[in-house]
Amino acid sequence: MPYSKFKIAVVGDIMIDHRIEGDVNKVSPEAPIVILNKKEEKYALGGAANAAANVAGLGAEVVLLGVWGFYGLSILNRLCEKTTIKNKIVMDTCRKTTIKKRFVSMGQHILRVDDEDKHAIREDHEEYIIKELKKDKFDGIILSDYGKGVLTPRICQVAIKIGSPVFVDPKDDAWLKFKGCEVITPNQKEYFSPNPPIAKNIKYIVVTMGEKGAEIIGQTGIDHGFNHVVKTEPVEVFDVGGAGDTFITALTCEYLRTKQIVMAVRFANKCAGIVVSKRGTQAIDIKEVSINRPHPYNTAKRIFKSILEEDNE
Question: Which CATH class is domain 7-21+38-288?
Answer without folding.
Answer: alpha beta
